[in-house]
Amino acid sequence: MLRTHLVFRVLGIESSCDETAASIVEDGTRVISDVVASQNEVHQKYGGVVPELASRAHILNVVPVVQGALERAGLSLEQIDGIAVTNAPGLVGALLVGLQTAKSLAWVTGKPLVGVHHLQGHLSAVYLEPEPPPMPHLALIVSGGHTSLVRVNGHGDVVELGRTRDDAAGEAFDKGAKLLGLGYPGGVVIDRLAKTGNPKAVDLPRSMLAGSHGDDFSFSGLKTALLHHVRATGIPEGQALADLCASYQAAIVEVLVRKTRKAARRERLEHVQVCGGVAANSGLRAAMQAAGSEDGFRVYIPPPNRCTDNAAMIAAAGYHQLIKGERAGLDLDAIPSAPLPRRA
Q1: pTM
Q2: Domain containing 189: what range?
Q3: What confidence tens digit (pLDDT) does each residue in 106-119 have?
Q4: Fewest Cβ atoms closer than 10 Å to its Cβ: which of 48, 112, 135, 226?
């Protein structure tokens, strides 16, 4: 038996992209420490994540972040029951930093280790909230690298119904912001400006809403439409910029919400969670809540700090793997591309 006290404590480590994070979670539901080192300043002048720079920053940050999580929890490594680390998908160099750290800790302490799929982590963030959704439910995963609709039948038992065929929603936000000269990360800036803009000011396309496309998404055409608009009219200022941001955001949000509503009706699911970095977007949160009220499904969205990449969600997902008896060896490797299982 691994359990030596009344709770089961998991140390989670996340380094799949540009945040170095460590967290300790009890029984998959209670966060007792959560430390995140952001790299926004490292990548800001490039307008996006530079993989080599991300890896170097992870190397500098990972040990202090893990130490910080233990210190804030008032625990030693000996008081941890298991270690969970993101091993897929993500930037391979970034993944390897967290993975090698986790494997070293597991080897030194003899604690059990599991590798966690990053998207399973996002799906587990909602279980850190007081009222998580029951099983089964529908989940919309929206982040910089992923946009998927997923049927969640149980912890670790998920089926992807649809995914983006090109750009993810978060990527569309960030690249659109870069095109408009709004800096990085740009999705937050677009969201802020959109609050004072007219979402109907600029006519932008809503891609792949016809029935033949099922639950898949596409945002590359929207990004191209924004590019052509800017080339034709220039980058606007003041209210015109707010209007363009509101119109661009509305085009992304409408597709996400309409696809989710359709899938919820078809799957006959009355509970829907939204997770991933874009789930922090105020426009998406409001539109999904409104859709749920109209259609009769309950919406669950973690607070913004649990939407962006964090280690608490990795520890929560790892907890369920560990109590099922799953174990990874020291040959656990980083997998840069690892889609969720898809419905046949």
Answers
A1: 0.94
A2: 134-301
A3: 999 999 999 999 99
A4: 135
